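On to my pick:
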Amino acid sequence: MIKNRKLLNEELGRKSIDEFKASSKLPVVVVLDNVRSLNNVGSVFRTSDAFLVEKIYLCGITGTPPHPEIHRSALGAEKSVEWEYAKETIAVVHKLKMLGYNIISVEQVEKSILLNEFSPRSDAKYALIFGNELKGVAQEVVDFSDECLEIPQLGTKHSFNISVSAGIVLWDFFCKIKE
C-alpha cells in the first residue's frame, strides 16, 4: 500500500499577501447582495483568495472586515483579497456594467443557464452576484443581469449555503477560464 505524507504548511507554496496582490487575477469579481452570515462572508473571502478573485463587493447588510467572525472563517483572506463596501447592490452592478463586466446572478430563475452548460470566455470579465441566505439575489439585480446561472441540484432541497454556492461557481469558472 502506498502511503501519502501530509504536506507541511511551509511546503504548500503559499503566496504572501504582497505576492497575492501582485498576482494576475481571475477576471472575476464577487458581489455579495445582503448576505447575513458573517461566517459566509469569511468563507467567500477564503474561497476568493484560493482562486485569485479580483475583488469582493460587500453590499447592503453584508458585514465587513475587520470582524472576528469574518476572520474566523476567512483565516486572513480578508487582508489579501481587495474588497469594498457599498450600501446599494444595484449601484455596484451598474458601475461594474459600465466597466465592461458581464453581470451574472447566481439564482434560480426562469430561463437560467445551468452552470455545467455555461462557458465563460477567457477574454471577458465577470461579476458574480450571490444573494441573501433566505431571499436570494434581489429581483432588481436579477432584472439587470446579463445572465443568471443555476447550479444543477437533484435532491429534495434545491438550495445550497451561499458559501458553498460561491465555492462551486468560482471553482467552475477557474477550471473553465484557466483551460
The domain at 23-177 is CATH 3.40.1280.10 (Alpha/beta knot).
